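Lecture notes, unit on protein representations.

Consider one protein chain, 527 amino acids long.
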Amino acid sequence: MAKVLIINPVVREEDVPRHVPYGLALLAAVAMEKGHLVQVYDENAWRQGDDTLREVLRADSWDAVAMGGITTTYGSIKKIVGISREVCPEASILVGGGVLTSLPREMMGFLPQVDIGCIGEGLETFPEILDMIDRGESEWWNIPGTISRKPDGQLAFSQERSLNMELDELPYPAWDLFPVEEVYFKNSEAVFSEEGMLARRRLDINASYGCSLICRYCYHLGIAGDMRYGEDNAGETTVEFDEPGNYTRIIRYHSPEYIVKMVKHLYDKYQVDFIGFLDENLMTMNQSSGGTWLKEICRLWKEADLAPKPKYNDKGHLTGWSGIYWGGTSHASLCNPEILKIMREAGCSHLVYGYESFAPHVMKTVGKGATPKNNYRSFFWTLEAGIRPIPNLIMGFPVEDFQSIRDNIKAWEELGIVVKPHFATPYPGSEWFSTYRESIEQQYGGNLEDFILDLGDATKITAVISHNFNMVELVGLRQMMLDRNFRSLDAYERIWRKNHDIAPGEPSTLIKQKSKPRPTSKEQVPS
């Protein structure tokens, strides 16, 4: 059988490692189930530097070195593949996940050391690649869902890989291969709720794959049916994602029985006290099931005696619990008081809501299907159910203007909250990346790789897709929002209107005058 080293690249280097990489752990389990010999080096967990990485690569005669992750792991992956090729010249190097799937041809160009790229879902593709390695063959283009190099150096796309619809047949992820006790349990706390802050043995699961929504800033990693093959003007095969008016969604989720059995396994084996649902949006899956999915999960959670039993001190403060608390994601227009109450009774402590904005004209362009009314209502419904609502906001949307900024500040005042917005970031694979790609590349001097290397978790600003504001303006306007500084906002709007010859009272937007975003500060020469 093939001897493979799986490497988990560094992600969010500014934070401690908090999450066992579910996808890699699942692929490891699938490969081992097929009889292959798997070891893992979790560079994100250990962060020991290049010398340790070289020691790991020299530790055995690997047939394959495999890695993958989201786009923001690209910088780490670029370093890893370079060192892997240097230390293991005979090994096949594999890269998969969103970082490769979003731009397969470009990534194979950026990473000449990579032999095979796994496009889309790798549950069947990965073990088939290892089978071919074990046979001593290298005609990777015969395996669906790959991009590889032919002997003449040309890139070869194989046929498209269909999605796995039998999720309950999958093994549980191979958590044992990762430093759960040594690293991840030590970083269990989650700031979203009191229960999350007190968690000491948290692990995360994926109950579903993909999402039914068409959020234009989002990328589904090729696991929601949104990915298809096409051809460019030169007749070359390309991977295409959502385009305006052309949306496809395949809804897939584990059965409640599978989910609760897996959680019970984690409780018995690791004594976990908190489960984080990594799903893009629990409520869209619940809607797809006709409203039965979450109810059944909660019923079985309690039936398995997993519903938490809290312990309090004499001052009424939570000190611990038996059982498992949990948290996940929700959607403003799909939740209701009934399901929220049921979820709380089963131990749900927090739900993250992607509100994105409280400005009606902005929300219409996002593709999420919610309104300000939905946002307000879901916030209070969740609080009333005893669950902590965690609102996420974004600024810098294409139609962002002074009115939307004011709408958000006013909403914060009514809700009694302050939210530091993320910046609208056109990650590769999202609709807005396709729409604004030319402008994105211009902002990075024509170098797409520089943009990808600059990407983070949207807390810092990268490529600007706002038609009205440049990079400097967005950073300053966000600070005014956080300070609730209407005076400075009003003063700057007067300057902005004068500079753009927009009279007071006219809509503060340049959308009709501009076909692409404003230049960033990098392109502007101070007057």
